[in-house]
Amino acid sequence: MPGLLAVAVTLGACAGASAPEVLVDDPQLEQGRDIYVRQCSSCHGSTGGGGRGSKLDEGRVIRDFPDIDSQIELVTAGRNSMPSFSGKLTTDEIVAVVRYTREVLS
Ligand code: HEC
C-alpha cells in the first residue's frame, strides 16, 4: 500500500517539522519536547514564535527567567491567561518542558 505509507510519512513529517528536535542524548529533553508539543505549542507556537501565548524563542525565557526555578514556578502557577499546570503535569514533567524551552527552543 504505497499510497497509505506516503500519507503516514507526510503526516509524520508535518508533526515532526514543528518543534525543534533534541539533538543530544537526553531523555528528559525528549520528554520535554513531547510535553511542549502536546501542552504548550497551541498557544506558544510550534517553534516558540508565539501566538495566543508569548514568544518563548530567541533567548527570551533565559532573559526573563535567569533562574530556572522562577520559570518552573511560573509554569506551575500560571499568570494571567497562561494556565497553571499544577495538577496537570508532575513536577518532573514541568522541569522537563521548562528545560526544553531553555535549552532547545531558545
Ligand atoms: C492557553 C494558552 C497557553 C498554554 C496552553 C500555555 N501558555 Fe504559556 N503563556 C500563555 C500566555 C497568554 C502567556 C503570557 C502571560 C502574561 O501575560 O502574563 C504565557 C506565558 C508563558 C511564559 C512566560 C514568558 C515570559 O517570557 O514571560 C512561559 C515560560 C510559558 N508561558 C510557558 C508555557 C509552557 C511551558 C506551557 C506548556 C506546559 C505553556 N506555557 C502553555 C498562554 C499559554
What is the CATH topology assignment? Cytochrome Bc1 Complex, Chain D, domain 2
Distance between the termini: 40 Å
Helix content: 55-70%
Quaternary state of this entry equals single chain
* Number of discrete domains: 1
What structural class do helix, strand and pairing data support?
Answer: mainly alpha
Spatial shape: globular
Query: Into which percentage range does the β-strand content fall?
Result: under 5%
* Architecture per CATH nomenclature, i.e. the level-2 architecture: Orthogonal Bundle
Mean pLDDT: 89
String of helices and strands: HHHHH
Q: If you had to describe this structure to a student in words, what would you say it looks like?
A:
The chain is 61% helix and 0% strand. The chain is mostly helical and 106 residues long. It has a single domain, classed as Orthogonal Bundle (Cytochrome Bc1 Complex, Chain D, domain 2). The termini are far apart. Heme C binds at residues 39-40, 42-44, 52-54, 56, 60-61, 64, 71, 74-75, 79-83, 85, 97, 101.
Which secondary structure elements does this structure contain, and how are they paired or packed?
Layout: H1 2-18, H2 27-44, H3 60-64, H4 68-77, H5 91-105
The structure holds heme C (HEC).
Residues 39-40, 42-44, 52-54, 56, 60-61, 64, 71, 74-75, 79-83, 85, 97, 101 line the site of heme C.
How would you sum up this structure in a few lines?
The chain has 106 residues and is an all-alpha fold. Helices cover 61% and strands 0% of the residues.
Identify the notable features of this structure and list them briefly.
single chain; 106 residues; mainly alpha; Cytochrome Bc1 Complex, Chain D, domain 2; 5 helices; globular; binds heme C
